[in-house]
Write a structure and sequence with these properties.
By secondary structure, the protein is an alpha+beta fold. The chain has one domain. 12% of the residues lie in helices and 25% in strands. The protein has seven helices and twelve strands. Strands 3, 4, 5, 6, 10, 11 and 12 form a seven-stranded antiparallel beta sheet that branches. A five-stranded antiparallel beta sheet has the order 1-2-9-8-7, with no helix packed on it. It is globular and about 65 Å long.
């Protein structure tokens, strides 16, 4: 069942934004953007968001959201959607500028079946058929997860910071999950050591897109329709974590200013599978071997509309550390194909109503895109408060590394606050995207 995100109380702090983002029309990034990952949706990254928390008393925290499992239909039963027990989901943070994650949050899931004799799946009539709590017996396939924090300076194993956390079931409908937000979604937000919070579960799809765009830019007029959201009834699975800013910066402190050399972090999420999967004659499956990254997401739309088709699968497996070594990817950022295709389509076919729209595409090299996506924006490059999205410090190698960059020395603005804009820097809000 489709549910609008909405704020669920100040006590939930930064993660409350998970429940309110659908009020903000936005275009998201990578849904089945590469040939191989399009056939492995449970490992498919769709979006990454990172921002300083805006709630009262939470100024010293940062919230990071990573979405997976795109295009979930609200009526896709009886199995519905849950995180894959055989996938390692990770949120990674580079605070030194070399493209290598310095801080990693790992999420692994375990599913249990209460009643395997029912013909149903996620829900069953083990009691009254309604799921009214995370421990309800009618939640027939409950899922728990662990959270592990890895610090590059102290070894690869890291430390377990949470275990036995429960995910809510999918929002099945008013009969099965009659009070979804209050009884299931809100209780699935858990506290973490140091005052942080974490959530993993189904949310409304924030990807705002008229799918006519794939029919040679055949989208409806924004001026006459306000925009058509083809995915307005779809859901995704969100992993959201809010942690102290001092947990993720290079100096382990809140940056003193927006130009301090510890102010900027790079954020990306990944999904990995074991290298070997064995399917037994009875249908059971086991996985073994090393973990192999198969999906990756930092900035929106990079693999979707910038990376050439023949490199999309490879890009999903590539760590940001090595981006600069793949010349065709770097060249695609500096001279992207899509703007040229849009220019041709709009001048040839026009918009949905046939209106011809001439546009001017800036010539290559697109150094503006290179700064946003792979290098960072230097100080004083834009009008407004002095700030940067270049990851500072002696560890920055000056190479191209594609990540979502966030300046933690710049106070955040809610999109509806004075000076805030859902268009980010295009709307004059330097605290918004691409920061």
């Amino acid at each position: 069942m489709k549910k609008q995100f909405r704020a669920i109380g100040k006590s939930l702090t930064g993660l409350a934004l998970i429940f309110s983002m659908s009020a903000i029309p936005m275009i998201a990034s990578s849904h089945a953007e590469a040939p191989l990952i399009s056939m492995d949706r449970y490992a498919d990254n769709t979006d990454v968001y990172a921002f300083r928390s805006t709630e009262t008393g939470r100024d010293g925290f940062v919230t990071i959201l990573a979405n997976f499992i795109p295009l979930q239909g609200p009526s896709d039963g009886p199995q519905f959607f849950r995180f894959d027990d055989t996938v390692m989901y990770e949120i990674k943070i580079d605070n030194t500028g070399d493209g290598v994650e310095d801080i990693t949050y790992q999420f692994q899931f375990t599913t249990r079946t209460v009643n395997s004799n029912t013909v149903l799946g996620m829900n069953a009539v083990n009691a009254d058929g309604r799921i009214t709590s995370l421990t309800d017996p009618d939640y027939n396939m409950p899922q728990t997860y662990t959270v592990r924090r890895i610090d590059r300076t102290s070894g690869r194993r890291g430390r377990l910071i949470a275990a036995g956390l429960r995910t809510p079931p999918s929002n099945i409908g008013p009969r099965t999950t009659p009070d979804y937000e209050a009884s299931l979604a809100q209780p699935a937000i858990y506290g973490l050591p140091g005052g942080g919070k974490v959530f993993a579960g189904q949310r409304d799809e924030g990807f705002f897109l008229d799918l006519g765009v794939f029919d040679v830019i055949n989208y409806r007029s924004l001026s006459t329709t306000g925009g058509v959201d083809s995915l307005r009834t779809a859901n995704v699975s969100t992993i959201g974590i809010e942690v102290p800013i001092s947990d993720v910066t290079r100096t382990r402190a809140v940056p003193a200013s927006s130009t301090a050399d510890d102010a900027v972090i790079g954020v990306f999420s990944t999904a990995s599978r074991r290298t070997t999967r064995v399917i037994q004659s009875d249908g059971t499956r086991t996985s073994e071997g090393a973990w192999q990254q198969i999906s990756r997401l930092g900035n929106p739309l990079v693999n979707e509309v910038v990376v050439p088709l023949g490199l999309k699968d490879a890009f999903n497996s590539l760590p940001p550390q090595l981006d600069y070594t793949v010349t065709p990817v770097v060249n695609a950022v500096l001279d992207p194909e899509l703007p040229k295709l849009i220019e041709i389509a709009l001048e040839t076919y026009g918009t949905f109503d046939g209106t011809i729209v001439p546009i001017n595409i800036p010539p290559a090299p697109r150094n503006d895109m290179a700064q946003i996506f792979v290098f960072g924006i230097p100080v004083n490059a834009v009008t407004g408060p002095n700030y940067t999205t270049v990851i500072g410090g002696p560890g920055n190698d000056g190479q191209a590394h594609e990540m979502l960059r966030l300046n933690l020395g710049l106070p955040a603005l809610a999109y509806n606050a004075p000076g805030g804009s859902r268009l980010g820097i295009l709307g004059g809000d330097v605290s918004g995207f691409p920061n």
